[in-house]
Automatic annotation (TrEMBL):
Cell membrane among keywords: no
Segments forming domain HTH gntR-type: 1-62
Protein name according to UniProt: DNA-binding transcriptional regulator, GntR family
Naturally occurring in which organism (per UniProt): Rhodococcus maanshanensis
Keywords: DNA-binding, Transcription, Transcription regulation
InterPro entries: GntR_C, TF_FadR/GntR_C, Tscrpt_reg_HTH_GntR, WH-like_DNA-bd_sf, WH_DNA-bd_sf
Domain of life: Bacteria
Length: 219
């Protein structure tokens, strides 16, 4: 029960607005309420579940935490390239990079619709870059950051133009890595992450302000 619920939370099956009630989860997973209660307690300690007014909900980072999470994401992702720059005995796994190049080239020809599936593809791309750098611990750290940022990224309204821009940036990064142009590739990755951070922070700030205004009107 714990593993199934954890996997579903990490994959974004539940909206950040979904209350994780014991009775509902027990029915959903076909178990009694006891294993649900135990699973929720573990997930609460792991910060994948948060206690808010009205009960337990999937973790959603506070607005003031977003900059810190993106700083960690940048540090981890750029380190994947820096370690290869610093030690020329290392190199990126070319098979992984070529697979990503092929995948995103196909997407460029037929851009997918904005939505959760594209966000999942985006996360997979960044994880693949770190995997190609040869340090599994970096990939694991990035996956943890992704799980915390995913709720607000899914609430951020993407556009088709932004999807195309993301695909173009991914292709520029992976082509640079394949060509051995590590410095420019790192620079493009850095800009890519800054753009993502600024959009998420802006949209989340707007949502927080709208929510506060709505509460003030009700009161």
């Amino acid at each position: 029960m714990y593993r199934a619920l954890r996997d579903d939370l990490v994959r974004g099956r539940f909206s950040p607005l979904d209350r994780l009630g014991e009775e509902r989860l027990a029915e959903l997973y076909g178990v009694s309420r006891t294993p649900v209660r135990e699973a929720l307690a573990r997930l609460l300690s792991e910060e994948l579940v948060a206690r808010e007014d009205g009960g337990l909900f999937p973790y959603r980072p506070r607005f003031e935490d977003l900059h810190g999470l993106y700083e960690l994401r940048m540090t981890v992702e750029l380190r994947g390239i820096d370690r290869v720059i610093e030690d020329r005995r290392l190199e990126h796994a070319q098979d992984i990079l070529r697979a990503e190049l092929e995948r995103w080239t196909r997407m460029r020809a037929e851009p997918p619709a904005p939505g959760p599936d594209f966000i999942a593809s985006d996360e997979a791309f960044h994880a693949a870059l770190l995997q190609a750098s040869g340090n599994p611990a970096l990939t694991e750290a990035l996956n943890s950051v992704h799980s915390k940022l995913r709720p607000v990224r899914r609430l951020d309204p993407w556009t088709q133009e932004r999807v195309r821009a993301t695909i173009d940036s991914h292709l520029k990064i992976v082509r640079g890595l394949l060509a051995g142009d590590l410095g420019p590739a790192a620079g493009e990755l850095h800009l890519h992450l800054i753009r993502s951070r600024d959009l998420v922070v802006e949209r989340t700030g707007q949502a927080v302000a709208s929510s506060a205004m709505a509460r003030a009107i009700r009161e």
